[in-house]
């Protein structure tokens, strides 16, 4: 596929030449934190791609702060700190949550005075009872499976500077929303919001998630590779999380391993792949930055929106 005309496209080698943070190397502790949540992660990609990205995000944040200040001066209002929101989008299993957590660690490392928080949009999925009531249990992840009104309300409260804003929590263990449990977002300097729908324009909404994000990143890869990562993640979960008797997949993972994998492949083919094609991929060219990954999650190309 040719690159969209409104993006600069860079091979990794070129991208990394734009910024090297040699002066503030990652500490052993930060490297340990990165490896702790994903020991497969390429530290070379962290240095070559993510550190320049973090620098770009900081420049964008400074610009955003200056613009907020100018705006309040024009309006003769008292200046206040407005959270800078980074949206991360892409297919199920493309690596959104890994990227989001990596950015959280790196931003915390390089900007220790800033409060960085992270939430995922899956907390705004309707709970299973409601999905069943609407007969859309097999449409989890599709636009209609999210309570977009609540998500927009949440983002509006965060942007308005409200304290202790609650975000509901989705449990992959229970395959459902956890009742009465919340993440608390409390006046962060930077909020990272990760989810397949952060660039979507649902038809029944006039305000979108993207109206609240100040920088958006789309994680991209070929469909076949993402399917492979989905199945690999499923297999490693079978040896870990699915061993817990309270896990949603406990029974199926304990009857017949091959059947369980077959089942996961069907879920990919019938739910996540169609969602990727119909609803996620078409939002790619709204992102400020597209990160393209190839085998073993290595990044081979970065596209930065020109205008
Ligand atoms: N940069 C990376 N390096 C190595 N493995 C990765 C990387 N990003 C994601 N993965 C692996 O790919 C799978 C999907 O990643 P995940 O972050 O859970 O995706 P998503 O949040 O998009 O569903 C997981 O098994 C994860 O460990
Ligand atoms: C809850 C999700 C929609 C969220 O995806 P994520 O943000 O974790 O990529 C997804 O993990 C999911 O459950 N999809 C439905 C089909 C499946 O079980 O994979």
UniProtKB/TrEMBL annotation:
Residues holding ATP: 90-97
Instruction: Please give the Pfam families that the UniProt record associates with this protein.
Output: PRK (PF00485)
**Where, subcellularly, is it found?**
Cytoplasm
Q: A GO term (biological process) for this protein? A: coenzyme A biosynthetic process
Q: What is this protein called?
A: Pantothenate kinase
Q: What class of enzyme is it?
A: transferase
GO CC terms in record = cytoplasm
Keywords, sorted A to Z: ATP-binding, Coenzyme A biosynthesis, Cytoplasm, Kinase, Nucleotide-binding, Transferase
Phosphoribulokinase/uridine kinase domain residues are 85-233
GO MF, any single term: ATP binding
Predominantly, its location class is: cytoplasm
Q: In which pathway does it act?
A: Cofactor biosynthesis; coenzyme A biosynthesis; CoA from (R)-pantothenate: step 1/5
Entry's EC annotation: 2.7.1.33
Organism name: Apilactobacillus bombintestini
Looking up PANTHER family in the UniProt record yields: URIDINE KINASE
Return the Gene3D superfamilies for the record: P-loop containing nucleotide triphosphate hydrolases
- Provide the reaction this enzyme catalyses: (R)-pantothenate + ATP = (R)-4'-phosphopantothenate + ADP + H(+)
Family as reported in the entry's similarity comment: Belongs to the prokaryotic pantothenate kinase family.
């Amino acid at each position: 596929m040719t690159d969209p005309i409104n993006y600069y496209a860079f091979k990794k080698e070129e991208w990394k030449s734009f910024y090297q943070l040699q002066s503030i190397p990652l500490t052993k502790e930060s490297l340990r934190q990165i490896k702790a949540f994903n020991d497969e992660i390429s530290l070379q990609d962290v240095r070559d791609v993510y550190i320049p990205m973090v620098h770009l995000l900081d420049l964008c944040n400074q610009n955003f702060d200056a613009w907020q200040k100018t705006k309040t001066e024009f309006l003769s209002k008292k200046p206040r700190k407005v959270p800078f929101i980074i949206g991360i989008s892409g297919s199920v299993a493309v690596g959104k949550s890994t990227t989001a957590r990596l950015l959280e660690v790196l931003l915390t490392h390089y900007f220790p005075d800033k409060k960085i928080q992270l939430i995922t949009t899956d907390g705004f999925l309707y709970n299973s009872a409601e999905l069943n009531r609407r007969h859309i249990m097999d449409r989890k992840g599709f636009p209609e499976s999210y309570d977009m009104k609540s998500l927009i309300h949440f983002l509006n409260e965060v942007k308005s500077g409200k304290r202790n804003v609650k975000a509901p929590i989705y449990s992959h263990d229970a395959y459902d929303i956890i009742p009465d449990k919340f993440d608390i977002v409390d006046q962060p300097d930077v909020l990272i919001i990760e989810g397949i729908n952060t660039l979507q324009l649902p038809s029944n909404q006039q305000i979108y998630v993207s109206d609240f994000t100040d920088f958006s990143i789309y994680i991209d890869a070929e469909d076949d590779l993402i399917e492979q990562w989905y199945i690999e993640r499923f297999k490693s979960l079978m040896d870990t999380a699915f061993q817990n008797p309270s896990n949603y997949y406990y029974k199926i993972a304990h009857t017949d391993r091959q059947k369980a994998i077959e089942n996961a492949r069907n879920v990919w083919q019938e739910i996540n792949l169609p969602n990727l094609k119909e609803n996620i991929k078409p939002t790619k060219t709204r992102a400020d930055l597209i990160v393209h990954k190839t085998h073993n999650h290595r990044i081979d190309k970065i596209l930065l929106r020109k205008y």
